[in-house]
Amino acid sequence: MRFETTLQKTVEVSGVGLHHGVPVRLRMVPALAGTGIVFRRTDLNHFAIPASWKHVARVSYATSLMRQGVLVSTTEHLLSTLYSFGIDNLYLDIDNLEVPILDGSGLPFVQLLQQAGIKQLRKKRKFLQIRRPVTVEDGRKRISILPAGEFRLTCDVEFPHPLVGKQSMDLTVTPESYAAQLSPARTFGFEQELAQMRDMGLIRGASLDCAVCFTPDGVLNPGGLRFPDECVRHKALDLIGDLALLGKPLLGYVIAERAGHAMHAALVARIMSDSSLYDVVTLDDLASQLTEMLVS
């Protein structure tokens, strides 16, 4: 899209938070060009927290944002959907500290965007174009980004489970590919880890209605998996949600190997800490670059 976007109308949904288990209502409110994606805690006088890497607070089991001590938790599924659909400007009004988990995937948010409709604004979109490769590593975990003329990702996961094992996903991210191939994939966990997570104060709102639970040799969910490789698809969904904190649509090829929220956040911080790694461009700039290359 050449120009910035918002939604045609306000839409809302209610649910509970996955980790805190609190009831919460989310409203998506159209915003003017140049606003960006901004959470507003309506229970705290509409206190604003921009969806930006500058406000990343926690990256264990979910990505949380914090500004001046005010928290918004588990942002990745919602931001993943907005980013993949090219939504640039929006107020996200919530009345508690955690985004509703809904069915544990991005699909309910896709349906909300389809219900609202997308409105094109008059300001030209600015893209983050990667100039040089960047890599972050931690043992066997690794995430890299390479220059590319589109937003593409390859995501690998590996879990010692008969229904998971090693899985890989390669995708050029568009609204259509995201909606069909990633958005239905749900968050997941393993039965043997549940007690420890609850002891850590997590998954208080979890149920089989909002997450896949793997037993030692199968799944507890009556309907089974939505995809044979649902785990890697959901990890790719999470990855996009964390990359959304760059604040601009990305032109680059991301390769994630066994990475998680912490490594995603580290990559984003690494990119944004060095302006020589990227250019901020419009589609007109890209067209000019292509013309110059052809002429030369």
Report on this model:
By secondary structure, this protein is an alpha+beta fold. The chain folds into 2 domains: 3-124, lpxc deacetylase, domain 1 (Ribosomal Protein S5, domain 2, 2-Layer Sandwich), CATH 3.30.230.20; 127-286, lpxc deacetylase, domain 2 (lpxc deacetylase, domain 1, 2-Layer Sandwich), CATH 3.30.1700.10. Helix content is 24%, strand content 34%. The protein is built from 7 helices and 19 strands. Strands 11, 12, 13, 14, 15, 18 and 19 form a 7-stranded mixed beta sheet that branches. A 5-stranded mixed beta sheet has the order 2-3-9-4-5, with helices on one face. Strand 4 (37-41) and strand 5 (47-50) form a beta hairpin. Helix 1 packs across helix 2 (107-116). The longest helix is centred in the last third of the chain and has 14 residues, at 230-243. The protein is globular, with a radius of gyration of 19 Å. The mean pLDDT is 96.
Overall spatial form:
globular
Main β sheet profile: 7 strands, mixed
CATH class of the largest domain: Alpha Beta
Model regions low in confidence, pLDDT < 50 over at least 5 residues: none
Estimated helix fraction: 10-25%
CATH homologous superfamily name of the largest domain?
Answer: lpxc deacetylase, domain 2
Mind telling me which CATH architecture of the largest domain this is? 2-Layer Sandwich
Q: Count of DSSP helices? A: 7
Q: Distance between termini?
A: 27 Å
Order of helices and strands: EEEEEEEEHEHEEEEEEHEHEHEHEH
Q: How many strand units? A: 19
- How does the helix and strand content classify structurally? alpha+beta
What is the percentage of strand-forming residues? Answer: 25-35%
